[in-house]
Amino acid sequence: MELTRRDFVRICTGTVAGIGVSGMFHPFVRDVLAETLTGQRPPVFWVEGQGCTGCTVSLLNNAHPGIAQVLLEIISLHFHPTIMAAEGQLAFQTMLDKANEFTGQYVYIVEGSIPLKASGKYCVVGEVDHHEYTVAETTDIMARGAAVVIAAGTCSSYGGIPAAKGQQTEAVSVSAFLKARNIPTPVINVPGCPPHPDWMVGTLAMLLDAMKRKGIEGGVDATLRELDDVGRPRVFYPNTHLTCPYLGAFEDGNFTPDMTDKAGCRFELGCKGPWSGCDSATRKWNGGVNWCIENATCVGCTSPNFPDGMSPFYEN
Fold it and tell me: Is the whole model's pTM more than 0.85, yes or no?
């Protein structure tokens, strides 16, 4: 059975018959992608910038397919400071060498924002021959040779918490950093604090599949056409409030006075759902068990102006 691009999008969004309302990946995706992406796959390098590693923790919780199958069958991951066994100068130099070997062909992922103050020394990610590589210098090097850059998480996508009011490190997003350095490599934003594992794995899978079918440049271009106006894949960020199960209560003005009321809308408690634009309401989290608004309010963590523009998170 051949899985078309349209079929894959339908599977990602949970619209194929037989897939639960959680919208998790169908196990069939694992088998198809393993077959589609066999052979030489573009190397993937993941660097941790100024962040909490929460995006990596979320990635490791991927359920369908499991993270072991993602790493072994779908993604040719050559560098990740948290996951890999190697460390130190050997690991970092190997990344630089491998990137040089595959110039113009690899995928570079940044988790966390990029601090600029003090020549970027607020975030050092590697050392070779007693030279400390900041995430700023590393991104300058790696992004120039990449086919595409993926900003994993809101800190990387838009600056996030490290770039919020009062910050002392001059933190910026990946896109802002590349623009300031005149680096034309395209960026795909996968925001969230943290992003759902499906959003990260799904974005990578669609990108790598497109690159396999259309070539490196054609695949990147095809994927970029699927992004919204703030650089997010529309399949995971439909930019709508219509999927919220509390929409009827919202439209009827039925607003709950406290968190324990499971029937009313939480908008007057500070919910930022109307500005989030992600598919959490249908995809859900933790293997489809729950999602943000069932036990709290949405804080708008997938939005470009999070956290400052979404504060305060709760209303009295």
Answer: yes
pLDDT in tens, the chain (316 residues): 333 444 444 444 444 333 333 344 444 445 445 555 555 678 999 999 999 999 999 988 876 667 777 777 777 889 999 988 888 999 999 999 999 999 999 999 999 999 999 999 999 999 999 999 999 999 999 999 999 999 999 999 999 999 999 999 999 999 999 999 999 999 999 999 999 998 998 898 889 888 988 999 999 999 999 999 999 999 999 988 888 888 898 899 999 888 877 788 988 898 998 888 899 888 888 878 888 887 788 999 999 999 998 888 777 5
Residue 266's φ and ψ, nearest 5 degrees, are: -100, 15
Q: Could you tell me which CATH class the domain 247-310 is placed in? A: few secondary structures
5-224: CATH topology is Rossmann fold (3.40.50)
Q: Which amino acid, 114?
A: I
Residue 69 has a CB neighbour count (10 Å cut-off) of 18
**Contact criterion met (CB below 8 Å) for 256 and 246:** no
| Domains in the chain: boundaries | 5-224, 247-310
